[in-house]
Design goal:
Elements (H helix, E strand, L loop, with lengths): L1 H14 L1 H22 L5 H5 L2 H20 L11 H25 L8 H34 L4 E6 L1 H11 L8 E7 L4 H4 L3 E2 L2 E5 L1 H10 L4 E4 L5 H13 L3 E5 L12 E6 L2 E6 L6 H36 L5 E7 L5 E7 L6 H8 L34 H7 L7 H7 L3 E3 L6 H4 L15 E3 L13 H14 L2 H17 L5
Parallel strand pairs: 1-2, 1-5, 2-4, 5-6, 11-12
Antiparallel strand pairs: 3-4, 6-8, 7-8, 9-10
Helix pairs in contact: 2-4, 2-6, 4-5, 5-6, 11-14
């Protein structure tokens, strides 16, 4: 237990390193300023060179260090309002002043430093550092709340009576790496609750509304709290698990925890939750995958720039317009990103897609694939066997159009290996079990691509392959898929 306390204290010191630096620097500056004002008729440089001056500098630094060890002046600093900060600064200033006097007494320097210098110094310190604390806290809060809160999007499901306390518990920490996007309540009444919100969080419906929301909206995890209906909570957890969404069940005691290899207890704000993931990835494997993505992304970007030199002029001559094709795609947990490709289709390709939907090779509209697509640049040109042989067909057959996605890999939107990122219109048609495809970062290639994607016309088969990849993923599987992908590309098999 003592070692845990020591670790927590050191974590807090590291967390508030900015305030510690401000504290030390401002205190020393105030000492210089007080010394200068006290001795306007004397040379400051001479004063700085005295033994007494250097001893006071050391004493002040020691006072700050002792304060950090004993007083913990920055504990919960970001939660204090301006009046709380005022009281904390009074306590902190008095503590530092007393420690400074004691240190000077023991080194026999108490009578050398002028009392007027000391008074000036502590007045300056109190006023300046109080102002710095208030301004810096405002900057941090604005940055955290407005810039960093959207790292993860979470959804709440509970009862009307528990909603307020649940929101308060989740928002009890200033440093949150999540944003509460929406709330749903078990006893939702449309006539009463339509347009309702709590602390600017919209209350949007009941259980079925929540499942539809998380299937079609960016959601990283769902926090559940149904203390009076554990069976419903368990049922929703199972449905969310099928959809590939991480769940956190708020618990009152650890006896509520069900045995599960993928479940663990942690704190979320001030709430104790049982977190359940689809599967737990060992840290070493995650690091290896990330390293592989970074190295592969760098190499891929270099190759992309080389390829650009050769094919960009041809694309522009055959179809004037942008060389790169940009499209909104759906990434991990529904986070939308811009995916890049070399443009292999005419500029009006997206508009013509609706007209060609009847010729879709897929058995439904959840994906679109067409033989001899007339939207491809130069596809009107045929070889002796009647097959299209335009520059667009060449780019797609050799998978050269995919190379700009290495930029997406470096940005972190995609991985080298993963699931195929759907378009927005495809995502809007998803059922709950389709949502599992989004529980892992999408990839340039994947299990579907090496399994003969041109021959697979049933979207459910695609979902089955993606679910198998997610459930059984290993680093070895990624390497195997990458090797097979290279072979497929060289043989021009299964492309588009």
């Amino acid at each position: 237990m003592p070692s845990m306390n020591t670790k927590n204290k050191s974590d807090r010191l590291f967390k508030h390193l900015d305030f510690i630096v401000f504290d030390f620097c401002i205190l020393e500056i105030c000492f210089y300023l007080a010394t200068y004002l006290y001795g306007l008729d004397h040379n400051l440089v001479v004063r700085i060179g005295t033994v007494s001056f250097r001893r006071q500098q050391i004493a002040l630094a020691a006072a700050v260090a002792i304060s950090l060890a004993v007083e913990e002046p920055y504990k919960s600093i970001l939660k204090r309002n301006k009046w709380g900060e005022l009281g904390a600064m009074v306590t902190h200033t008095v503590f530092l002043a007393l420690v400074d006097v004691v240190i000077l007494f023991f080194i026999h320097d108490i009578g050398i430093t002028s009392r007027l210098v000391t008074v000036y110094m502590w007045i300056f310190y109190f006023v300046i550092f109080l102002f710095v604390r208030l301004v810096w806290k405002k900057i941090i809060r604005n940055y955290v709340i407005h810039r960093k809160a959207a790292n993860r999007q979470i959804v709440i499901f509970t009862t009307r009576s528990q909603l307020d306390s649940m929101v308060s518990g989740l928002r009890s920490k200033i440093f949150m790496d999540y944003d509460i996007a929406a709330a749903f309540i078990d006893d939702y009444d449309f006539a009463i609750d339509k347009g309702a919100s709590i602390d600017r969080i919209p209350v949007l419906g009941s259980a079925e509304d929540m499942m539809n929301y998380v299937t079609h909206t960016w959601t990283d995890e769902v926090v559940l709290y149904l203390p009076e209906d554990p069976h419903k909570s368990m049922s929703l957890t199972e449905r969310l698990d099928t959809a590939g969404i991480e769940t956190r069940n708020v618990v009152l005691n650890l006896h509520d925890m069900k045995d599960s290899a993928s479940a663990y207890v942690e704190k979320m704000g001030s709430l104790v939750v049982i977190s359940k993931q689809d599967r737990e990835i060992p840290m070493r494997e995650w690091i290896f995958k990330k390293t592989l993505d970074i190295i592969g992304g760098i190499v891929g970007c270099i190759l992309t720039m080389i390829i650009f030199i050769f094919i960009a002029p041809i694309i522009y001559i055959k179809s004037p317009g942008p060389i790169f094709f940009k499209q909104q795609r759906v990434g991990r947990n529904g986070k939308v990103f811009t995916m890049y490709k070399f443009r292999s289709m005419y500029m009006d390709a997206e508009e013509r897609k609706a007209e060609l939907m009847e010729q879709n090779n897929m058995e439904d509209t959840l994906m679109f694939k067409m033989s001899d697509d007339p939207r491809i640049i130069g596809s009107e040109k045929k070889d002796k066997d009647g097959n299209p042989k335009g520059i667009g067909n060449f780019i797609r057959d050799t998978s050269l159009d995919e190379f700009p996605q290495f930029f997406n890999v470096l940005k972190g939107d995609m991985s080298l290996v993963g699931t195929r990122p759907p378009t927005l219109d495809e995502w809007s048609q998803y059922s709950e079990h389709h949502r599992k495809r989004l529980s892992m970062r999408p990839g340039i290639t994947g299990l579907w691509q090496i399994s003969g994607r041109s021959e697979i016309t049933d979207f459910e088969k695609v979902v089955e392959l993606d679910a198998r990849y997610i459930d059984t993923w290993t680093v070895g599987m990624d390497i195997m898929i990458l090797i097979k992908t290279v072979g497929k590309v060289l043989k021009r098999e299964g492309a588009h």
